[in-house]
Design brief:
single chain, mainly alpha, 9 helices, membrane, LeuE-type, Threonine/homoserine/homoserine lactone efflux protein, cell membrane
Length: 203
């Protein structure tokens, strides 16, 4: 790959990241618990992108392009997962206090949330199926696809980590129970809306 092709691919990835999606709101929600938790969520999402790149490299993700049923199943699974995350967040605020910011127990959960959300997002899979091959030179091996996956993951991790830092500092500045509760509920509602929208579009 030429340097121009790499830069063009990274620029495209950045433009796509700037468009808010489920992963963006998921990172924002976890950033309310602290920048560290938000960055760990972003890391999980980045690892999910590498998983997609590996799936494309071995030909598994091509099923999404050929099978409407496989694509629909993935959309339903992803939608249900986002609804689950949103509803769980709303219910958590009706019970005892949530896990302390950045605690050891909250970090694995944040990583899993980012990872599963990305892996169950069919749009990410279609990006690697439809867009990534256009940047792979003729005759290139599996390694090139994986490299592009790592580049996409790096761009996503960088952007989401910066977003997490900004969100966490904003929360620290506005550290009021009512504000935090409102932001948590708003992000949970957005995640639920994304999930419901995904389920509706799968019909």
């Amino acid at each position: 790959m030429t340097l121009d092709a790499v830069l063009a691919f990274c620029a495209l990835c950045l433009l796509l990241e700037l468009t808010p999606g489920p992963n963006t709101f998921l990172v924002l929600r976890h950033s309310l618990q602290g920048a560290r938790t938000g960055v760990v969520t972003a890391l999980g999402s980045a690892v999910g992108a590498v998983v997609w790149a590996a799936a494309v490299a071995v030909g598994l993700a091509a099923l999404l392009e050929r099978s409407a049923q496989a694509y629909q199943v993935l959309k339903v699974a992803g939608g249900l997962y986002l609804v689950h995350l949103g509803v769980r967040t709303l219910l958590a605020h009706r019970g005892p206090a949530s896990t302390p910011a950045g605690s050891a127990s909250s970090l694995p959960a944040a990583f899993r949330a980012g990872l599963v959300s990305c892996v169950l997002n069919p749009k990410v899979g279609l990006f690697f199926v439809a867009v990534v091959p256009q940047f792979v030179p003729a005759g290139a091996g599996v390694g090139t696809t994986l490299l592009l996956g790592v580049l996409e993951a790096g761009v996503a991790l960088t952007y989401l980590s910066v977003l997490s830092q900004v969100a966490a500092r904003a929360v620290e500045w506005l550290r009021r129970p009512r504000v935090t509760r409102t932001l948590e509920r708003a992000s949970a509602a957005v995640l639920t809306a994304f999930g419901v929208g995904t389920l509706v579009s799968a019909r």
